[in-house]
Batch of 2 targets.
Target 1
Amino acid sequence: MTIEHEILVIAAKSYGLFYLIGLSVIVLAYTFWPSNKKPFERAAKSIMEDEDRPWQ
Amino acid sequence: MMVSQLTVGERQLALVLLILMAVWGLVMTLAGADGLFQAQGTLIFLYSLGGIFLVLSGYFLPPPAANREDRYYDDPTKAGIILAMIWALIAMFVGDWVAWLLAYPEMTFDAAWASFGRLRPVHTTGIIFGFGGNALIAASLHVVQRTSRARLPDQLSPWFVLFGYNLFCLLAVSGYLIGITQSKEYAEPEWYADIWLVVVWVTYFILYLRVLARRKEPHIYVANWYFMAFILVVAVLHIVNNLALPIAFNHVKSYSAFSGVQDAMTQWWYGHNAVAFFLTAGFLGMLYYFLPKRAERPIYSYRMSIIGFWGITFFYMWAGSHHLHYTALPTWVQTLGMTFSAMLLVPSWIAAGNALMTLNGAWHRVRDDATLRFMMVAAVFYGLSTFEGSFMAIRPVNALSHYTDWTIGHVHAGALGWVALITFGTIYSLVPWLWKKERMYSPKLVEVHFWLALAGVLIYVFAMWNSGIIQGLMWRTYDDAGTLAYSFVESMEAMHPYYIARAIGGLLFLIGTAVGSYNIWRTIRMPESAGVVETPVPEPAARPVLRSGE
C-alpha cells in the first residue's frame, strides 16, 4: 500500500507537472498561432449571421 | 404532433424500444424482491406504456415531408424548454419547502417521505438534472444545429434522449421519496437508474457527434466545445463514481466498488466535476452562444474563450479534493486540490470577463432588455461565485466555512445567480425565436421575473453568508478554560432568523419562476406572427437616443 502511494506521489509531482506545462504550451501555441487568427475571427462572427435553414 | 415527424421506420423503432422498456419495467415489477424495486419497475412500465399509446395514436399519420432536411429540427428543443420549466417549478417549490422545514423542523408531520433527508435530494436532483439538464439538452441541440448549419441526423434519437433522460429524473426523485438512495451527493439514484442514464447519455453523445460530423461550417464554434466537454465528462464521472455491485439483480440496494477514503475521494472528484462540467461547462456553452446573439455583438475575444476552455477542463479535474480538507485524505492530495482550485480563478474570470467585455458598448441594451440583463447578471454571479469558490478551497478558509451555511450560500450564488439566470436569459431568447413570435407575451413580466429573481438570490446569499460565518465562529470559540463557548444547539438558535430570511429569498425566486412560466405559456399560445425570421428582437426596442454617461 505504501509503495503504491509513494509511486502516485512521485508521478503527481513530476510527470504531472510536465503534463500541465506541456498542455499549457500546446494550448497557447494553438490559440496564438498566426494562421489561426482569421478562422477564429470568422467563427466569432459567423454565429451572428441569421439563417433559419441548414446549408445544403 | 410529435409522432407525425417520425418516418415510418422511426415509428417502428420507437415502438420496439418502448416495448423493450415496458418489458424491462414489467420484469422489475414482477421479479422485484420488495415493494421499492417493484414501485420503480411499475413507474418504468407505465411511462413506457404512455409512450406506446402516444406512438400508436399517430402511427398511421402521413409520413413527414421529404423536404424536412431544409429545416432545423427544433421540436425536441421546444419540449426540453417546457420540461425544464416544469422541473424548475417543482424543484424550486421543494427547495423552498425544505428551507422552511429547516426553520420549522416540526413541519415533517411525522411522515418519512416529508423528512429533510428525502426531500432535499428531490430538490437538488430536480434542479440540477431536471431543470438544468433539460435546459442544457434543449439549448445544446439548438446551438449545435445552428453553428454546424446542419439538421439533426434523425428524428428519433433526440426524443429518446429527452424522454429517456426524464425517465431517469423521475426514477430518481420518486425513489428518494420512498427511501431509495445510494447516499452519494448528486449521485443518489441506485444502480438500475444509473445504468439507464448511461444508455441515454451515450445516445446523446453520439447524436451530438453525428451533427458535428454533418456540419457545413468548417470550424466548430467554441460553444460546442463546452457542450461536448459537458456531455463527455459527465459520462465518465457518472460511470466511475457509480461503479457498484447490487446485492441482487431484483433489489434496489447496491454497494460501491470503492471504500473508505477512496470512496470519499471518488465521490468528490465526481461531485466537484458535476459542478464543473454540468453546472459550468454546459452553461458556458449557453453563454458563448446566446449572449453574443442577444447583444448582437460577437464575443469580445474568441482566443480568450479557447484558453478559458482548456483551463477550465484541465484544472477542474483536480479540484475535487478541496471537499475533503482535514480528513483522512493525504495532505498532499488536499493541497493539490486547493492549488488547482486557486488556479481555476484564471479561466473562470476569463469567461466572466469575456462575457462582460462583449456587453461593453451595448449597455443600453442591457438597460432596456431584461433578457440580456439576465445574462449579464449571470456573468457577474459567475465571476463572484468562482472567486468565492477558489477562496473557500484554501485550507485555512475552509476550516471556517466547511460544514456551515456559507457553503450553501456559495452553491446558491452559483446555482441561482449563475445557472438559473443564464438559463432564463436563454429561454426568453429562444421561446420567441422557436415558436415564431415577434416577442415574449409580456416584456413587463420578464422585468418582474428579473427583479424577483435578483432580489431572491441576494436575500438568499446574504442570509447564508451571515448564518454560515456566525455558525463557523461559534463552533471555534473557546473560553478561558479551553472548552467550547457555545453548544451546537446555541449555534442552531442563532441561525433561525437567517433560515427564515433564506426561505423568503427562495420564495421570491420561486414566484419569479412561476411568473416566467406563465409568460412562456402565454407566448406559446400567442398567434404566430407572419414572416418572423429567427432574429433576436430586443424588448422593448432599444432606444437610439444617447444619454449622459454613454
Note: Chain B has two domains: 1-70, 71-524.
Target 2
Amino acid sequence: MDTAYSTEDLAFRDEVRGFFDEAYTPELQARLRSPDYKNAIEDWQRKLYDKGWVAPNWPAEFGGTDWTATQKYIYESERSLAGIPNVVPFGLVMVANVIMAYGTDEQKEYFLPRILKSEDWWCQGYSEPGSGSDLASLKTKAERDGDDFIINGAKIWTTYAQYADWIFCLVRTDNSGKKQEGITFILIDMKSEGIKVNPIISIDNHHSLNEVEFNNVRVPAKNVVGEIGKGWTVAKALLAHERTGIAGVADVKRAVRVIKEVAAKEENGGQRLMDDPGFQQRLADIEVELMALEFTELRTLATQAAGGFPGPESSLLKIKGTELQQATQELLMEIAAYYQGVLPVDLDPEALGHEFATEARRNYMYGRAATIYGGSNEVQKNIIAKYVLGLE
Amino acid sequence: MNFDFSEEQQMVRDSIARFVQDDYDWDTRKAIVASDQGMSRDNWQLFAELGWLSIPFAEEHGGFGGNIVDLSVVMEELGKGLVVEPYFPTVVLFGGLIKRAGSEAQQAEWLPRIIGGELLGAFAYVERQSRFALNDCQTNATKSGDGYVLNGEKVVVFNGEQADHLVALARTSGDQSDSDGLSLFVVDAAAAGVDKMSYAMMDGQRVANITFKDVSLSADALLGEEGAALSVVDALTDEAIIALSAEAVGIMGVLNAKTLEYTKTREQFGVAIGSYQALQHRMVDTMMAYEQSKSLLFKALCEYKQDPAMAAETVHALKVLIDRNGKHVFGEAIQMHGGMGMTDELDIGHYAKRLMMINTTFGDATYHRNRYIETAYAA
C-alpha cells in the first residue's frame, strides 16, 4: 500500500512537464479553439508521436511506451494540469485496441502505423436510430457478395464523421440466431461510394455529431476484424476501453482548479463568490467525491497494469466520472450567472464581459451527453448489477 | 381554502394555450427566433388585442386589474409554449416599475402604450461586477439644471435589442454598493448617447449591453423618489421571481409530459423503456419535483396576493426549489431522451435552456439560499 513517487518517477514527471511546456504552444492552443481544430489536434498528436508518447497504453511492440501504471498516471495528470486535450480516442484508443487484439497481421501492419502518425481520422459506427442502449438490436445489414460485403443502413451520433477517413462499424451479417450473434466488426473507408454524412447540431449549438447513411456500400471482406459473426465480443471489449477513457479524473481536477480561479474573481455585492459558504459547500462536496474517485481509478489502473482488458469496474469509473464532470460543468456555468446564456458572437469577449462563460455553457450543454454515450449510465448500472453483483 | 382558478383566469389560460397550440408550433417558434428581430410584431399586436398585455395593470389606465395569480397564469402558459416575445421584460419588468413607482402622469403616459402593444420596454439593472447584488451600481446620474445626465453601462438587458424605452437603475448619490442613493429613470433607447451591443441568448432572447454616455434626461424621466429606488426594485424582484417561477412550472410540466410519452413509446430490448422499474421511479421523482414546485408557487401566490411583504421569505425558498427541481427535471428529460435529447432539433434542450436562464435571473439558488438563511434564521 504505497503511492509515493520514486526518484525515477519524479524525473519522469519533470520530463513530461518540460515537454508540455515547450510543445503545447499558445499558438497551438488558439488553433485548437478555432475552426482549424481538426488540423490542430492532428498536429498535436504528431508532436506526441515524434516524442513517442502518442499511445501510452499500446504495447511497446506496436509503438506504445512501456510505461508503468504510475508513469501513465503521472502523464495523464500532467496532461490535464497543463490543460491539454486528450488525443482523439476513436483511432488511438478504440479501434487500435481492437486491431491489436483481434486484427490480422495485414490489418495491424497497415492500420496501426497510420493511426500512430494520425494519418487517418477514425469515427465509430455503433448506435443506430433504433439501437441505443440496446446496441445488439442493430440492423445495419452486411450481405456477402464474393470477396466483399454490401452494407445498407444508418449509424447515428457519429462524432466527427465529417472529418473521418475511416469508420469502424458493427453490422449484421446474420439474422437467424440470438441478436448478439450475427454481428460483425468491420472497417469501412469513408470515401466509399454510397456513404452520406448528415450533420446533427447538438444543444451546445455545435456540429460534432452526425448520422451516417450506407447505401449499397461495397467493403472488402478482409476488412472484418475478428471472426465474422463474433463482432459482439469485439464490441464489448472496446466499450470497456471507451468507458475508462470517459472517467476523466484528471480533467475533473482541472475543472475544479478553474472553478476556484474564476470564483475568486467573481464578486457578489463586494463578497468573493469563493468566500460564500453556500458555494464553498457545493465545491467541497465535489472535491470529496473526486478524491475518492481518483483512488478508485488508481486501483483499476493497478489491476490493469497486470495485463488484459479492463473489466466491469470500468462501468463504475464511467458513472462516477461523468457525474462529477457534470457537477463541475454546472458549477462553472453558474458562476457565469447571466452570462451563461450568451451565444457565441463576433463580439470582442472583453467588450461583452465574462470570457469564460461561452465555453462554460458549451461544456455544460455538451456535457449532458457524457451520461448517455459509451453506454448510458443506466446501462452501466445494469452491467455492474449483472456482472459484478451477480443479480439477474 | 381553495386552490382553484377563477373562470376568468381559466379563460386567459385557455386563450394562451390555444394560441400556443394553433399559432406557435415548434417550427414557427424556430423561425421567429431566427428572424431579424427575434420576435414577431404581429404576435405582439395579437397579445395586445387579446388583452394579455393589460393583465397586471389597473383598470383606470386601461388594464385588466389582475393580481399576481392572473399574472402567473399568463406566465405559466407562455412558458409551456416557450414564447419568446418579450412579455417578461416589457410587461412584468418595465410595466411593473412604472405601475409601482410612476406618478399618475407617468402611469397615464406609459401604461396605455404598453397595454396597446405600441411600446416594447426593458429594465436595465445588471452590471458587469454586480452579479445578483442590485445595489452594486456604478451607472450614475448627476443633476444638471432641472434634469440629469446619465453615464455608465448595463449588461445582459433582456429585450435590450428591441426595447423602445428602458428603465435604468442609476446611482444619484452614495458609494458603489450603498443601499441608498439609487434612482430609476425612463430612458428613450434612441436618445443621443445611448449605445447598444446586441446579442442572442441560448433561450432565444435578444439582449444587449447598453452604454450611456452623457445622456440628457429631463426631470420627469425620474421614476419614483430620487435615491429611494432599491425598495421599489426589491418589490419588483419578488413579483418577477414569482412570475418566472410560474413560467418554470409550466416548462417543467411540459418536459415531464414529453418525457413520459417518450418512455412509453421508445423501445429498447424489445419493450418500452418506461417498463423498467429503475426508470419508472425516476419518472415518479420528476413528477414529485413538479408537484412540489407547484405547491410552493401556490404558497407564494396566496401570500403575495394577501400582502406582498408576507411572501418575502417564501420567494427566496421558491427560487431555490425552482432552481433545484428545474435542473432535476430537465436533466432527466435530456437523459431519458438519450441522444435525441442532445439535439438542437428537438425542443427538449430548448426548454432546458430557458429553465437555466430562469434559474440565474434575479439570483440563483446559491444566492437565494443565503437570502433565505438571512431572512428566516435572523436572531
Note: Chain A has 13 helices and ten strands.
